[in-house]
Structures are given as C-alpha cells and as structure tokens.
Write a structure and sequence with these properties.
GO biological process, one term: fatty acid biosynthetic process
Radius of gyration: 18 Å
GO cellular component, one term: mitochondrion
CATH class: Alpha Beta
CATH architecture: Roll
Shape: elongated
Structural class: alpha+beta
Protein name: MaoC-like domain-containing protein
Helix content: 10-25%
CATH topology: Thiol Ester Dehydrase, Chain A
GO molecular function, one term: (3R)-hydroxyacyl-[acyl-carrier-protein] dehydratase activity
Length: about 180
C-alpha cells in the first residue's frame, strides 16, 4: 500500500491513522504507528509562483536572465508569457524532502524540463520513493520526481537521491 501525504503552502492535509493501518502489519514492532517511508510512498506539494518569487530568486542567485522579466524577450524565445525559472520550480523537490526528513542530504537530481511554468500556474510537485537501502544508520533513498500543472501537463520530470537520517516521515504544516 502506498502512503500519500499531500500538503499545500496554505494548509496541510494529514492522513488519518487508519489510512496507515493496512501497511503496519509489514512494519517491525519498533516502527512508529504511522509515517514510516516505504518504497512506493508519495509526498506532494502544491505551489503557485508569483512575480515576487521570481524577483527574490533572481536576487538570491544573481540570475537576471531577461527571459524571466521581459515579455518581448520571452515571446522572441517562443514563450506565450514570461516563464518562471525552471530551477525555482525544481527547488520544490528538495524542499519536500528536507521538510519531511530534517537532516536529509540531497546528493543527486536529474531534471527534464518538459513545459514552461508561468506566474499564476498551480504546480503540483510529487516525490515518490522508488528504492530504499539502509547504509549503517542512515538510508539511501532513490526518488522519482515530477511537477505538473493543470492536473496533467508535466513540466518537470526526473529523479533524485537523498540520504535520510531516518525513515520516519515528519508531518509538516506550511500554513
């Protein structure tokens, strides 16, 4: 059974304990009553980017590509509007991982940018554990990473690897 923890920047939807009950029989007696990461589990976040987000990102990274600020430049490059920087959108992946697994070390990310994201687009970011391997007292986790808009248009696809200090999933409140 897959666990799915979904949250937005405005509110958290915590799964009731009974959603985990059928998977608990597969856990050791020392496992917590809920929220232990297993292969197949999914974490999601929904986010809408603003012009202010682009400005702050550019200040922080010193990436002032006019493509992200000038409509004429964006149109000359083939975009209908000014796109949100792809790396800003992709930053949702480590945010999801680190917020649910404090102390996580993000060691690898591959990204395929499939479609542009524009200010106001509702973006859903999904991280799914595909492989978990224990190394001493930590866990090497391979993850499938995807962002989409409008419920179906994939904007970023890829994979990541993180070293987690624990498989206990911390429920977060980003409101």
């Amino acid at each position: 059974m897959r666990h799915t923890i979904t949250y937005s920047t405005a509110a958290v939807m915590k799964q009731p304990l009974w959603n985990f009950v059928s998977s608990l029989k597969h856990c050791s007696s020392s496992a917590s009553s809920a929220g232990v990461l297993r292969a197949g589990d999914v974490l999601k976040q929904t986010r809408t980017f603003s012009k202010s987000d682009i400005t702050e990102y550019s200040k922080l990274t010193h990436d002032f590509n006019p493509l992200h600020f000038d409509l004429d430049c964006a149109r000359k490059s083939g975009f209908a509007d000014v796109p949100v920087p792809g790396m800003l959108v992709a930053s949702l992946f480590p945010k999801i991982i680190a917020s649910h697994f404090p102390g996580a070390v993000y060691v690898k990310q591959s990204l395929d940018f499939k479609a542009p994201v524009f200010v106001g687009d509702v973006i859903t970011c999904r991280v799914q554990a595909s492989n978990i391997r224990q190394i001493k007292h930590k866990f090497m986790v391979k993850l499938e990473t995807t962002c989409w808009k409008e419920g179906e248009i994939v904007v970023i696809d890829g994979g990541a690897t993180a070293i987690l200090p624990s498989l206990a999933v911390k429920l977060v409140d980003n409101s």
